[in-house]
Amino acid sequence: MNSVKHYAYVTAGLLGLLLLTIGAAYIHFGPFNTAIAMLISLAKASLIVLFFMHLRTAKPLLRVFACAGFFWLALLFALTLSDYLTR
Amino acid sequence: MQADPAVAHQFEDAAQQRDAATLGMWIFLATEVLFFGAMFLGYTVYRIRYPETFLAASNHTLILFGSINTGILLVSSFCMVLAVRAAELRRSLATGGFLALTAVLGIAFLILKGFEYRQEIHEGLLPGAGFHFEGADPRHAEMFFYLYFLMTGVHALHVTIGVCLLGWFSLRALFTSRIERLATSVDLLGLYWHFVDLVWIFLFPLIYLIGRST
Fold it and tell me: Which of B67, B82, B83, B136 is most exposed, with minimal Cβ within 10 Å?
């Protein structure tokens, strides 16, 4: 179990990343704007999954199950886009 | 072997029962990932097809509402994790209090979302016969707003279910004399609430931010 201080740091990090992603959206990076926003979202999601959902200290079996949903999601995107992006 | 009334007969001990419950919750969350994932895929396909229209339509969303709501959900996740921690430390009052606080933040999110919908409907951005969009390609801008109302609507439904559960669990925590029997349930509710936050974290930039630099 983590301390309150520990959780507060993670929350501060999340709010910092929120400000960062809003700020970055107003700077013109062309096609990279969405990529940057998604990378920041991924960082926020990782903080939540690892610290708030306790996957960092979870048993391996649980981690496999947690990754399974995202694995199938990746397949769904890869196979669909392999069609739409090559038409 | 003595029978612990808090452990169902198919489990060896409380720890195994808790592990099984947590695993079950993650399996449910995996189905939720794919449920929301299909809508994100729909968004991606249309976004690739009509990139300029999506950027222009995105600039009609209300970024102030979206940003404040993202902050509210992040802080609510902090409250939720404190509730889970309090339940593990067997503190009934703190558990109930933090669960109630999380519920209040969830309600604040829904109220703001309601005002946001109201303004968008007023501006004629609700897809349908009354849809009105000043731009090059209103037909596909309508698709953006269809996806917007669908995805945020389904997300808001999840928040609503979460708020109801939080309220109920809060009362249970405050009025129980055996908080230890509630700890696993609070932990699972926490996983659900964080997942709802997770969905919003990806929705937020895709809806509100993509066209801001153009």
Answer: B136
DSSP state at residue B207 = I
Residue B109 Cα distances to B157, B162, B203, angstroms: 12, 12, 14
CA distances from B36 to A29, B122, B136, B151, B156 (A): 28, 27, 29, 8, 12
Amino acid making up residue B185: S
Chain B residue whose CA is closest to A21: B205
Cβ–Cβ gap B78/A7 under 8 Å: yes
Give the pLDDT of residue A14.
98
Q: Does B164 touch chain A (CB under 8 A)?
A: no
Write out chain B residues lying below 8 Å of A18, CB-based: 67, 70-71, 74
Tell me if B156 sits within 8 A of B162, measured CB to CB: no
pLDDT digits (tens, 9 = 90+) for A8-18: 999 999 999 99
Q: Hey, CA dihedral for A43, A49, A51, A57, is it positive or negative?
A: negative
The structure's pTM equals 0.94
Retrieve residue B107's tokens.
Answer: 């309600």
B45-56: per-residue pLDDT in tens? 999 999 999 999
Number of helices followed by number of strands (H, E) in chain B: 6, 0
Mutation for B interface: A6, A9, A41, most B CBs within 10 A: A41
Tokens 């009052």 locate to B93
Reported as a single tens digit per residue, the pLDDT across B20-37 is: 999 999 999 999 999 999
Q: Is the CB of B33 less than 8 angstroms away from the CB of A73?
A: yes
SS3 label, residue B129: coil
Q: How far apart are CA B170 and CA B139, in angstroms?
A: 46
What's the whole-number mean pLDDT along residues A44-54? Answer: 96
User: Any CB–CB contact under 8 A between B45 and chain A?
Assistant: yes
